What we know:
By secondary structure, the protein is of the alpha/beta class. The chain is built from 4 helices and 11 strands; from the N terminus they run ββαβββαβαβαββββ. 24% of the residues lie in helices and 38% in strands.
Amino acid sequence: MALKATIFKAQISLSDMDRNLYQDFSLTLARHPSETDERMMIRLAAFAWHAAERLEFTKGLSADDEPELWCKNYSDEIELWIELGQPDERRLKKACNRSRQVVLYLYGGRGTSVWWKQNQGKLGLHDNLSVIELSDSQTLPLAAMVERTMQLTCTISDGQLWVSNGNQEVTLDPVVLMGRPAREL
């Protein structure tokens, strides 16, 4: 019998001072059985950095031809494609061909530098790709905030994302390896 996704609810109060966006979001996340708490919380962080009316979570790990999040325009064209982790270069190439803008949030500890060295040359050929690295010293404490129902306050200033659940606080300071910072997309 296949394992089913676990459902999480998140209430996010977002103050994005870089974009003058102040809004509350009620989100439902389905965590695939193979997905870690860290990865799910990075999805939430990516949502906060790119929050928009049409930004939505996709089937993610359950679908080979969809990103973690995407934003489509009213003509159903993909404006923004957001990937996580250390995907195959061919997957990112396909994403760059299908979307106006692609953002990869690279995470995974020491393995990220090896992955980046192996893929940097090929990825540099894509003008519409941004690669943003997140340190596991910041993402692992973020994973400790996971609860089935979460009340989160997210504040973005100068590209940094501060997340609080009332008991814990984590600051994510992304490092842009290629492309533009999240706040400029």
